[in-house]
Amino acid sequence: xxxxxxxxxxxxxxxxxxxxxxxxxxxxxxxxxxxxxxxxxxxxxxxxxxxxxxxxxxxxxxxxxxxxxxxxxxxxxxxxxxxxxxxxxxxxxxxxxxxxxxxxxxxxxxxxxxxxxxxxxxxxxxxxxxxxxxxxxxxxxxxxxxxxxxxxxxxxxxxxxxxxxxxxxxxxxxxxxxxxxxxxxxxxxxxxxxxxxxxxxxxxxxxxxxxxxxxxxxxxxxxxxxxxxxxxxxxxxxxxxxxxxxxxxxxxxxxxxxxxxxxxxxxxxxxxxxxxxxxxxxxxxxxxxxxxxxxxxxxxxxxxxxxxxxxxxxxxxxxxxxxxxxxxxxxxxxxxxxxxxxxxxxxxxxxxxxxxxxxxxxxxxxxxxxxxxxxxxxxxxxxxxxxxxxxxxxxxxxxxxxxxxxxxxxxxxxxxxxxxxxxxxxxxxxxxxxxxxxxxxxxxxx
Length: 446
Hints:
This protein is of the alpha+beta class and about 450 residues long. About 50% of the residues lie in helices and about 15% in strands. It contains twelve helices and 15 strands. The chain has helices at about 5-15, 20-55, 70-80, 110-120, 235-250, 255-260, 280-290, 305-340, 345-350, 355-395, 405-430, 435-440, and strands at about 60, 85-90, 95-105, 105-110, 125, 140, 150-155, 155, 170-175, 180-185, 190-195, 200-205, 210-220, 230-235, 270-275. Strand 11 (about 190-195) and strand 12 (about 200-205) form a beta hairpin. Helix 2 packs antiparallel against helix 8 and helix 8 packs parallel to helix 11.
């Protein structure tokens, strides 16, 4: 029997099937819940994993307010379970700078310099510490670059605005800036420097000095990790050079600063935990041995983000599982009901020469056409929803970019939904195949 005849009979049966509308609706709901909710759930979970695995989200800073960090104290910290490393801070860890200008071998980069002159600029310069690595998506990483090099974020916005609350930012083309040099001056006109003299914590203001950083690479910008669109990274060696220059430029209290530099036990320490889930345990252990720590890790996160992630994870599992089970059970029931109600028709088809395989093909194709209609309807709705979501959040504030769904991820999940729409009716028909085989030509007369 030719395929077009099987297709013709399957279409005819679809028109007479009173249950087809319900199946279309259920499959559409299944596709929407699987593609939209699951895409958002996976996207948010990926963002949270990026946060949890970021070096700064696992690093606790402790300061010598009540005791110096001699070797005995450091060893007691190293002996805490889940502590991966303990490092003494002897570099300028992070400072805020304004951009004075941007230039290359041909001079000032005028097209961007105009923006810097019109708007207030600010960047947060962090030095890497204790073997910290930052991979790049373009250019070189800091391991391959000379001192006073830097890497900038893919979504680069070095202007003095609240990027986490401002919508519609026009990020700079970061890759086009590779090879150019940023000339920086401390924000506020001086360095505010905190240090410990062995007895008390002190603060001094160091006169401003110019810093030139050559952009050598661009790193991936994550809304939950890696800092933000104005965060620049330099190497640990560069951080040490900045510290040395700051001390050399100090006026009042220079001797005390030099004494501080020469006494590592007066410096803050950075405690890296092996896994983000063990942060609270290490915090408690540090408190037990009377070590003062900064209340949160170096990299914070919006407290609503983990809650939203959990909600989407639960919705994804519940809606997708429920829709799949309801669709499968009802389709199986309708398959059994179809064979039962079409007993005379199937018997007649066998009487005129139709084989079991041909009849199975007609019934399966009938169900398959119905589920594919549901898949098409659900795909149109979900594609529209994802397009709107991506448009809204790509033009929204930086923090909400976590909701942007990767098109490749969406297409992959849509392909999974298509496989389900294809295989569910086939499986249902296979499960009722024995009932089909029992029908004989004589049943056409019953």
